[in-house]
Amino acid sequence: MFKLISGDDLKRMRLSCNRTTDEMAKKIGVTRQTYEKYEAGTSQIRLEDGLRLMVYCKIDISPILNHFIGLKKLFSQYKEFDDEQPNRYRASTKKDHLKPGPEELEDL
């Protein structure tokens, strides 16, 4: 699983801004025990909570935001999808490609 912010990163961030685990937990609305699980690496912090803590500790998040802006520009070049016609852009030309065929039904 991809981790944007590791437990070690959280601990370094907390220590660099001279905060307690309780203060960090209160900032994102979790218990101290939950925050300590984030730092220990036994649980994963949500992206928005990690960003909120970065702002709280006065860490420059502009490189992260610039990267997301770049991704948005990259994805905007692709054609918009119409949710009313979900099968219009399917990869397979076969209409029932997700249904099991006769040979697959025999295995059941």
UniProtKB/TrEMBL annotation:
Residues 10-64 form the HTH cro/C1-type domain. PROSITE patterns: HTH_CROC1. Pfam families: HTH_3. It comes from the Bacteria. The lineage of its organism: Bacteria, Pseudomonadati, Pseudomonadota, Gammaproteobacteria, Alteromonadales. InterPro entries: Cro/C1-type_HTH, Lambda_DNA-bd_dom_sf. Residues 86-108 are annotated as: Disordered. It comes from Thalassomonas haliotis. This is Helix-turn-helix transcriptional regulator. Residues 93-102 have a biased composition (Basic and acidic residues).
